[in-house]
Amino acid sequence: MSTPWLRQIGQDCVVFSLHVQPNARCTEFAGLHGEAIKLRLAAPPVDGKANQALCSFIAEFCDVPRRAVSLLSGESARAKRVQVEGVDEETLRRLRRLG
User: Fold this and answer.
1) Long-range contacts for 66-73 (Cβ within 8 Å, ≥24 apart)?
2) DSSP letter string over 27-59?
3) Where are the domains of the chain?
4) Cα torsion at 76, 78, 79, 84 (round to 10°)?
5) Confidence (pTM)
6) Which helix (H) or strand (E) holds 80?
């Protein structure tokens, strides 16, 4: 299964593309949006709160410390690229099943 939104870099690092919908009722993955995975985010897009909530949610989903998640692009856009370090095989399988 091809996942254009997910790239593995090295042994335990991934980069993925997101389409973020802020101010959602709850924070959850919501399928594909073009070549990105859609993420509904409960946080408002004010003062960086959405980006903080995004990185915290991704860290929890991937079972890594918050410091292992970094926003590569899209700080003030809905289209974002996120890098996660320390991803194990089980987490990689869960990520691939999202799309």
Assistant:
1) 72/15
2) -EEEEEETTEEEEE--S-SSTTHHHHHHHHHHH
3) 6-98
4) 80
5) 0.92
6) strand 79-85
